[in-house]
Amino acid sequence: MAQIEEVNVDQFRHLVSERALTGETMLLNMGPQHPSTHGVLRLLLELDGETIVNAIPDIGYLHTGIEKNMEAKTYVKAEVMTDRLDYMNTTGNNLAYCVAVEKLVDLDVPERAQAIRVIITELQRIASHLVFLGAFGLDLAAMSVFLYCFRERELILDILELCSGQRMMTTYFRPGGVWRDVPVEFEPAVRNFIKIFPKRIDEYEALLTKNPILLDRLVGIGILDAKTALSHGVTGPTLRASGVDWDLRKSRPYSGYEQYDFNIPIRTEGDTFARYIVHIDEFRESLKIVEQALDNLPKGPVQSSNRKFVPPPRSEIGVSMEALIHHFKLWTEGFPAPKASIYSAVESPRGELGVYLEGDGGPKPHRVHWRTPSFDNLSVINKITQGHLVADLVAVLASIDIVLGDIDR
Amino acid sequence: MDKKLEKIVQDLQAKFSTSIEEFRDEAHVFVKAEHIVDALTLLRDKYEFELLSALTASDYYPEQKPRFHVVYQLTSLARNLSVQLRVQVNGDQPKVPTATRVYDVANWRERELLDMFGIDFEGHPDPRRILMPVEHEGHPLRKDYPLGYEEPQFTFNYDDIDLKKIYAKE
Question: Fewer CB under 10 Å: which end of chain B, C or N?
């Protein structure tokens, strides 16, 4: 055991300006226990008065070793860990993982399962954006929006509970389909949501979009240009607010997204207000996708019939010996994947959620890497907050919508 | 492989004498460590691969030569293409030139690889651990690093376990 060194400013010496060494600027620690850092983000701020000279993020307080843990589990068991990455977008993580596994082992997914996946993922995207909007308002001292957003989010979590029995950590999607078909209450519940939610979006907008206090704090703050954004690997709404038309649902459709008619909201300003507006517009587009998918929900099975990868239903086990063997093999050993690697990505509410998945010929992955959008989006924070006030940093941080579980993995 | 991608891969092959693996429509191009910065610059400037989507590594322990593969996943927004570059690195003193001058995102991603795999990126402007605490010993994602516990050493298996613990010796 090495001697634990006291963390001092020396390790940040090459990151702060010369003036910090002479004491002309002040170094201030913000977080990891700070309500507006959205979890356990620590920022080392170098301040000249109240103006930010440097904002140096220090991450890893929520590191749980998910990538390492997944290497020790079979492909199906490892999926449970994916919910814990970005805890605002649990089913989206499931989708990213399932799409990756299906690509690695070359497994087909029935159309009904794909449509269900799209509905659930888009509802989850709305839920995630609702948390964004609530926390965004809260950070800018607009308390009531938070309460309204969580009221609507509750409706979505109820729908998730209907389908999977869990409100947040659902693990509802499985390689080859979804865990079980949606119950009969599913459609009325989603229809009810589609009916009431557009009015609620207008309510949020009435509270925020033209609010002069809010505009003063958002417009022209934390401007991110497209070139810097791309070089820093920024994706998702943050990139689209900087004028780059890039959404994986459109450019590289997965899970049947090519069937749906929806737009990609783009803003060119790249400031905090643009990022906020893109999130609001995405509510409406996601709702469109949900409605179309629900209207055209195909009938049929919700799991692949490939018994080498998907366990047989209970009814088959009693009458078929092969089914019993498959059941036993899949739940004890798991299915093998080829000795090869793939990279597949989906559009999470925060950006490109990529999975690098490598098999070793056995039932457990050799390596799983999560390319999480919040990690790359946060890396740009120093560049876009320099010269702003500390209060603006809070607004910018809220607008890039980071989730620490997504960053630290 | 996509026709447009094929041309790019051929160009890479001509310039850096690379080898190629294909799997499920993905192109994995093996580049030598000394060429990686040039290859990335070429792809970014000539072929519009503006986005370094992922930068990660994979450990093939107990194999030592090459022990690691460093993986660069590149995306071109303008052409809607993806290509993967891979650099093979040996187990003793793994070193790769840094890509931070080409893509800013490489800064944090390379710090993560330094932290998790102990791969040195030569010329990196800020070589600190990023996820693990500064005083942590060893590199968690290496295959010889135990998962969450240390195996107790007894007289009968002392040498066996000692072999697996090279991460703790320095």
Answer: C
